[in-house]
């Protein structure tokens, strides 16, 4: 086999790996119990190893969510860590490219805050919306610094942020698309 042919095979294999889906590393339910969401195990933030959160934990399962979602995701969203300066720190994070997804929600009155990943603003002046609104933000592509990853809310005019959950994926490929139930566009009388 020629050296050029070997190089072409190596580059093709490398490109195929880079284009593949990202791999799930870890997910955290910041203010609530362990859960299973989208086929992945989510840890309870209060008991998770190699993780700490600043902010106050709270849960309000009575607020109707906008848009509605499945039961496990609803429970995670309504279980939060909140405050004017929320910071999450993960330790023992693998080296290399990562993708971070953050779930936020509003339980009462709209707030504005910046979202920072590894001390870099990734979303400035985010508006949380009205009561019940939730968002899945990201993915953002940080790399761990000395095995650590931080996610925070801040800013000069920082309001109280409600962080509900975090997903961390390794790799640069697309995140898996979760299939959800859909309603029939043209229902029949049956």
How would you portray this structure in words?
The protein is mainly beta and 190 residues long. It has one domain: Jelly Rolls (Sandwich), CATH 2.60.120.430. It is 13% helix and 43% strand. The protein is built from two helices and eleven strands, in the order H-E-E-E-E-H-E-E-E-E-E-E-E.
Shape: globular
In CATH, the homologous superfamily goes by the name Galactose-binding lectin
Largest sheet: 11 strands, mixed
Rg over CA atoms, rounded to whole Å, is 19 Å
Distance between the termini: 64 Å
Beta content comes to 35-45%
Total domains:
1
Q: pLDDT under 50 segments (min length 5)?
A: 3-18
CATH topology: Jelly Rolls
Total count of strands: 11
What is the number of helices?
2
Topology order in helix (H) and strand (E) letters: HEEEEHEEEEEEE
Considering DSSP H and I runs of 4 or more, what fraction of the residues is helical? 10-25%
Average pLDDT score? 87
Per CATH, the class reads: Mainly Beta
């Amino acid at each position: 086999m020629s050296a050029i042919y070997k190089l072409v095979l190596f580059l093709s294999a490398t490109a195929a790996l880079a284009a593949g889906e990202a791999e799930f590393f870890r997910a955290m339910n910041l203010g609530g119990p362990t859960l299973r969401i989208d086929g992945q195990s989510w840890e309870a933030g209060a008991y998770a190893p190699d993780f700490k959160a600043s902010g106050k934990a709270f849960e309000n399962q009575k607020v109707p969510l906008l848009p509605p979602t499945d039961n496990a995701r609803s429970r995670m969203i309504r279980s939060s860590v909140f405050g004017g300066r929320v910071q999450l720190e993960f330790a023992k994070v693998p080296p290399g490219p990562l993708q971070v997804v953050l779930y936020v929600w509003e339980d009462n009155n709209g707030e504005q805050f910046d979202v920072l990943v590894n001390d870099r603003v990734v979303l400035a002046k985010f508006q949380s919306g009205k009561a019940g609104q939730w968002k899945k933000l990201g993915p953002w592509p940080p790399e761990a610094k000395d095995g650590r990853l931080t996610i925070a809310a801040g800013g000069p005019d920082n309001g109280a942020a409600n962080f509900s959950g975090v997903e961390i994926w390794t790799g640069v490929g697309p995140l898996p698309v979760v299939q959800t139930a859909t309603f029939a566009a043209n229902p029949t009388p049956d």
